[in-house]
Amino acid sequence: MSAGVGAAVQTIKDARRTSALIEQAEQETSLLPVDLEIAEPKSMRVRLPLIEGAFVVYMGAAHSKSIALVGRVYVTETETGEANEDGTPRVYVEKTVSPEGIQSYDFATHDTMGRVIRSRAVPKRKPYDDRLWGKMFCHCEHAEHLRVFLRMRNAAREREFELLIPPKMRQTFYDYVRVTEERLKSSTAETDEVINR
User: Fold this and answer.
1) Distance between CA 119 and CA 115 in Å, rounded?
2) Cβ burial, residue 120 (10 Å; 0-12/13-18/19+)
3) Among 4, 42, 78, 145, which lies 20 to 30 A Cα-Cα from 110?
4) Do residue 88 and residue 14 come from a single domain?
5) Residue 38 falls within a domain, yes or no?
6) Which of 16-20, 113-117, 159-163 has the lowest mean pLDDT?
7) Domain count, the chain
8) Which domain holds residue 69?
9) Residue 52: per-residue pLDDT
10) Torsions phi, psi of 68, nearest 5?
11) Rounded to the nearest 5°, which phi and psi values hold at 42?
């Protein structure tokens, strides 16, 4: 038998062995739960809005709090070809909210050299509530991230984050939270019903 034919025969044997292993794995796992895909009605789909000017303030005591969430806000800057009054190029900024990717929020109180990061602390002045003064904050304009921060609790079941949302964006955010949580509640009920049959 030539080397080429021998290699072909070996490939066929490997394919049969792989096929047999896949068949065996399928038989062994056929009793495991199947991923459920529940179609949501079009009326329940939620547009992911951009909540411009929103901030999240960390109310906890940890000095190195950091959170990564799925989804992100993509920022695209395009020069318009025109100049500002000071001669710098005028830039058009477009923000897009996406459920894909990952965005990190860092609420660390100190940098890697041990220095206090004052630029991310809520200033000790009005209009900020005095209980927020000196607490670390991050910009957060992704509606789903804001909803997640709104629902986070510490071990004592106290809110771990405060949201600062501009008045003009509050209704948009509240509508998003209401519709999303109604959808999640109905989806959970449907999933429980299917699983508990």
Assistant:
1) 12
2) middle
3) 145
4) no
5) no
6) 16-20
7) 2
8) 48-195
9) 92
10) -115, 130
11) -55, -35
Written as one string, the DSSP assignment of the chain is --HHHHHHHHHHHHHHHHHHHHHHHHHHHTTSPPPP-PPPPGGG-----B-TT-EEEE-S--TT-EEEEEEEEEEEEEEEEEE-TTSPEEEEEEEEEEEEEEEEEE--SB-TTS-B-GGGBPPSSTTS-TTTTT-BEEE--BHHHHHHHHH-B-TTS-BSEEEE--HHHHHHHHHHHHHHHHHHHHHHHHHHHHHT-
Cα distance between residue 121 and residue 107, in whole Å: 9
Q: Are strands 89-106 and 66-83 parallel, antiparallel or unpaired?
A: antiparallel
Distance CA 30, CA 115 (A): 56
Q: Which pLDDT tens digit goes with each residue over 116-173?
A: 888 888 888 878 888 888 899 999 999 999 999 999 998 888 899 999 999 999 999 9
Report the pLDDT value the prediction gives residue 89, as an integer from 0 to 100: 86
Query: What single letter denotes the amino acid at residue 134?
Result: G
pTM of the shown model: 0.67
pLDDT of residue 71: 92
Query: 152, 153, 157, 148: which is closest to 177 by C-alpha?
Result: 148
Same domain, yes or no: 28 and 99: no
Task: Quote the tokens at residue 55.
Answer: 């901030």
Q: Does 27 or 110 have the greater pLDDT score? A: 110
